[in-house]
Design goal:
Shape: elongated
Strand content: 5-15%
Helix content: 40-55%
Structural class: alpha/beta
Strand order of the largest sheet: 1-2-3-4-5-6-7-8
Low-confidence stretches: 1-16
CATH topology of the largest domain: TIM Barrel
Oligomer: single chain
Mean pLDDT: 91
CATH class of the largest domain: Alpha Beta
Number of domains: 2
Order of helices and strands: HHEHEHHEHEHEHHEHEEHHH
CATH superfamily of the largest domain: Phosphoenolpyruvate-binding domains
CATH architecture of the largest domain: Alpha-Beta Barrel
Radius of gyration: 26 Å
Number of helices: 13
Largest sheet: 8 strands, parallel, barrel
């Protein structure tokens, strides 16, 4: 059993956590849902846009209370949730289900759905239909696709269908197999200019927002200068209108994270300590007061019934 000091420390920690939870729960909530216009307004006023990945309703609820403007249901769920070695394995139906869950958890936050590998590359019509599924079944507010200017016809068709498209340019993880791994984009003058041309073509095709990943800061700065729509950076430097990282990286839960996504807290060791503490409580039967009780009359009746059952069992040699 735990010592009195251990119990006191545990009770204090629980009380502190409940106080924190109460403070967060009582924090002001958004009166109306955010929209793409909200992001354009933030861009024009110079207010930075915060974005995090999210894969479940419970976490989404907390992130909405924190005030995060955009939640990305990324294909990184294939790695973070399912344990796949890369994002190319992430199933379409799985992501649609997760997107709906995140939106239910954070109804007033913009939810961006990530279209996984081969959900839009093979055929434009199929891409539009799958994007539509994210909007209807997944209740997404925005749909993200990893593209360059060769995807202009697809982006135009999606936009014409009324789908708000986020064009993901720069480093594109869904190409990692083809490129032999993840790599930065726009590191040469030729590649940087090509990235700027990609952005302009996709904006002209109707993209509502850009997400640029793993590019030199000066390239992203020029991209922001030229872009009439919000630019979210993922390892693209401080000039972007907003920033996104994988939530598990921010929480210190991943074994490795990119240099631009350093952990804000080391939650991994805290989770480890909590799990070990629970294991010790189970082994010592230190579960605290049991919350479910019977009335005195029902307890007496049950004691008599249990005694009768034991008597019958003993009379039959312990078998039933």
């Amino acid at each position: 059993m735990h010592s009195h000091t251990d119990r006191t420390r545990s009770a204090t920690a629980v009380a502190s956590q409940r106080t924190l939870s109460s403070e967060v729960a009582d924090s002001p909530q958004r009166a109306t849902p955010l929209t793409i216009r909200s992001l354009w307004k933030m861009m024009r006023s110079g207010e930075r846009i915060s974005c995090l990945t999210c894969y479940d309703a419970t976490t989404a609820r907390w992130l909405e209370q924190a005030g995060i403007e955009v939640l990305l249901v990324g294909d990184t769920a294939g790695e973070m949730v399912l344990g796949f070695p890369s994002t190319v394995h992430t199933p379409l139906d799985f992501l649609i289900t997760l997107t709906a869950g995140v939106k239910r958890g954070a109804p007033n936050t913009l939810v961006m759905a990530d279209m996984p590998f081969l959900s839009y590359q093979a055929d434009d019509a199929e891409g539009v239909r799958n994007a539509g599924r994210f909007m209807t079944e997944g209740m997404a507010d925005l749909v993200k696709v990893e593209v360059d200017r060769t995807f202009v016809p697809l982006v135009a068709r999606m936009s014409r269908a009324g789908i708000p498209v986020v064009a993901h340019i720069g480093s594109r993880p869904q190409l990692s197999k083809q490129q032999g791994g993840y790599s930065a984009a726009g590191k040469s003058c030729v590649d940087a200019v090509a990235l700027l041309d990609d952005a302009r073509a996709l904006v002209d095709a109707g993209a509502q927002m850009l997400l640029v990943e793993a590019t030199p800061a000066e390239v992203a700065e020029q991209l922001v200068h030229e872009s009439p729509i919000p630019v979210i950076g993922c390892g693209a430097g401080p000039a972007c209108h907003g920033q996104v990282v994988v939530l598990q990286d921010l929480l210190g839960l991943t074994a490795w994270q990119p240099a631009f996504a350093l952990p804000a807290i080391e939650f991994g060791p805290q989770l480890l300590a909590a799990a070990r503490g629970w294991m010790q409580r189970v082994r010592t039967n230190d579960l605290g007061p049991h919350p479910y009780t019977m009335t005195d009359s029902q307890r007496d009746a049950f004691a008599a019934a249990a005694a009768a059952r034991r008597s019958r069992s003993a009379g039959s040699g312990g078998t039933t």
